[in-house]
Structures are given as structure tokens and as C-alpha cells.
Amino acid sequence: MKSDLLEQTAVSTAEVDDQCISIPSPFQMRQNLPLDENGQATVARARTEIGDILQGKDSERLLILCGPCSIDNVNSALVYAERFARLAEEVLDKALLVMRTYFEKPRSVVGWKGLLYDPMTEGERSPAAGIALARRLLARLTGSGVSCATEFLNPLLAPYLEDCMSYGSIGARTVESQIHRELASRLEMPIGLKNGMDGGLSSAVNAVRSAQSSHSFYSQDLHGCPALVSTQGNNGAHVILRGGSNGPNFDSKSVSNAVDAGRLLGLSRGVVVDCSHGNSGKDHRKQASVAMEVLRQKVAGQDGIAGIMLESNLVAGQQSANAGPRVFGQSITDACIGWKDTECLVRELAASL
User: Which residue windows are coiled coil (predicted)?
Assistant: First the structure.
């Protein structure tokens, strides 16, 4: 896939002052940068297939959410997507691959907030350019058959991209937020809710209960106007185990506890295990061993395991965004496994299934 996405992204900032930059409404952005028929079909098909895996209707395949920690370069994302699409087709009978396309980066203190805020990664505000760039990329990916996943961080930004996404997640820092639980209840896709930063399960289980329930809350419509939104609840809401400050939680006891808690409350049966973050001790090289242990549990009969999440990029490791010339395809946020290791791991997982 050749990329001229950045060059195509023109931004009008007619109203600018020291505090505010006007941006197009979600409706305008969708009209200007729509998904084609192939893209719409890709999203709809993947949402259904992911839901079937989570509910146990498709018990033969493993959901694998795999891709960069965050998208910081559209050219490298397109190269990654080309390789990803070939691998997804190769293992289709055993695994459903969905590409991580994360455009917002939650920060414990400060740092680069993601492509939606700062597409040039130079500390400059350019939100309209970032949103347009992300939509162009997603339209290209879904149009070519690559299904996409993201973490929803700012609820006001969700309407700009949600129609492009087959899977969404709510992160550990926001899983206890009522606003994010309400957002999850509205989104029309499977949503994974991560355990809290300490690794405890209760926050994620409570969040899933909330997301699967109906809500009425204040939000905005597609034209950017304030609106009262009513939801029926999201039956695709489920727990993601990602470890935490108290240690990993991908062991068989922790997984069984999560599965049992969900079943006891009548929640979605599927559990997804994040092989990075607290479960790998933030060491990207340990992701493969975490994934294989989760697979061992699944093969041994733990049918509550629906999938895994991997942080992967073209080049292994991590680099600073401000340290001179960058390595093409290497993360500027969390360290990732490289593409060769990704291919080997996914093939090994598929073969074991």
C-alpha cells in the first residue's frame, strides 16, 4: 500500500485563538472521508465473527488482537497492514486476526497523546489533521479487508472513528469511569474492559456489568450538538486481563476466576488476555511466553478464553520520539515485538489449535 495520506490531509482552521481550534463535526468528517462498500462489509463481518468467538458460538478459533502499541506513522502502519493481511488469511481457519490501530495514548503524567492530537509527533496541536489522517488510514485498511481495533479514550472523539472499528477497548486508567462505561454501552461493537491498574478483577467485572446495561446520559450527536443518549447495553462487553502493579494475572487461577465471575453474573463468557503491560512486566520479549501459556490453558479445556492481545510492530523494541532520526516501524510508545517474531508466534498458536 503506497501512502500519500499525510499529503492528502488538508485542514481548515478558520477559527483559531489561544485556547480553541474549531474542527469539523463527526458527520462532516464521515461525509468527507467515508468507508467504501468493502470497508463497511469488513467492519460488519468482523464484528459478527468476534461476537461469535466471545459467546462460544465459534469455539474453534482464537481471537488475536495484534498491532502497534499506537499508530505514529501512517506509512509504517500501511506496510504492517500488508503483512498482517497475508498472515490473517494464512491462519484464518484457526485464528481471527484484528489489527490494533490505536490513535490515543493514555498518559499517567504527560507525554505524546497520540496521532489524533499530534499527528507529526512534535508536540503541536493539530486535532483536525490527526482525525482526518486516522480516518483516511482506516478507510484504506478496511477497504482492503483488514479489520481494526482501538482503545476509546476521549468519548468526544469516538464518533469520528467508531464506524471504522470492529473491536474496541476501555483501558485500565478509565475502566472505573462512569462516562466510559456509558460509552461502552452505546458502541455497536464488541468492547473489552481492562482490569484496573492494580490488576484487580472487580473494576473490570463491574464495568462489564455496567456496559451491558441500558443507560441514559448526556453526550453529543453526530453534528456535535449536545444530546441525551439512550442505550440498550452492549452484549459484547467482556473482561480483558492485563495484569497490574500487583503482578500478572494470566495464570490459570486468575483466568478461571475471571471466567467464573462472568458466568456467575450472566455476563459475556469470553475473556481476552493482554500479553503485554502487567502480564509481561512491560518486557515485550515475554509476550510470546504469556501467549503460549494462555494457549496451553485453552487447549487443556478452558473454553472461557476467547483471545489474546499482542503489541507488535515492524521492528522490535522502542525508541524515543525526540532522539534524532527514527527507525522506520519501531514504536515510540511501549516496546513491541518485531514482525518476524509476530509471524512465528501467530503461526505457532494457530498450529497448536
Answer: none
C-alpha triplet 281, 75, 339: angle, nearest 5°: 40
For 194-242, give the DSSP string.
E--TT--SHHHHHHHHHHTS-EEEEEE-TTS-EEEEEE---TTEEEEE-
Place of cell 495520506: 5
Q: Give the residue from 311, 241, 298 showing the smallest Cα distance to 274.
A: 241
- How many CB atoms sit inside 10 A of residue 221's CB? 14
Q: Which of 63, 92, 66 is nearest to 306 (CA)?
A: 63
Burial class (CB in 10 A: 0-12, 13-18, 19+), 6: middle
Look up residue 165 and give its three cell numbers: 472499528
**Rounded Cα gap, residues 321 and 70, in angstroms:** 13
In angstroms, the CA 232 to CA 184 distance is 11
User: In CATH terms, is domain 18-352 a member of 3.40.1050.10?
Assistant: no
Please tell me the distance from the alpha carbon of residue 36 to that of residue 139, in angstroms, as a whole number: 7
Q: Are 88 and 321 in contact (CB under 8 A)?
A: no
226-231 and 237-241 as β-strands: parallel, antiparallel, unpaired?
Answer: unpaired
- How does pLDDT run along the chain (353 residues), one tens digit per residue? 445 555 555 444 444 456 778 889 999 999 999 999 999 999 999 999 999 999 999 999 999 999 999 999 999 999 999 999 999 999 999 999 999 999 998 887 778 899 999 888 766 666 679 999 999 999 999 999 999 999 999 999 999 999 999 999 999 999 999 999 999 999 999 999 999 999 999 999 999 999 999 999 999 999 999 999 999 999 999 999 999 999 999 999 999 999 998 887 776 679 999 999 999 999 999 999 999 999 999 999 999 999 999 999 999 999 998 877 899 999 999 999 999 999 999 999 999 99
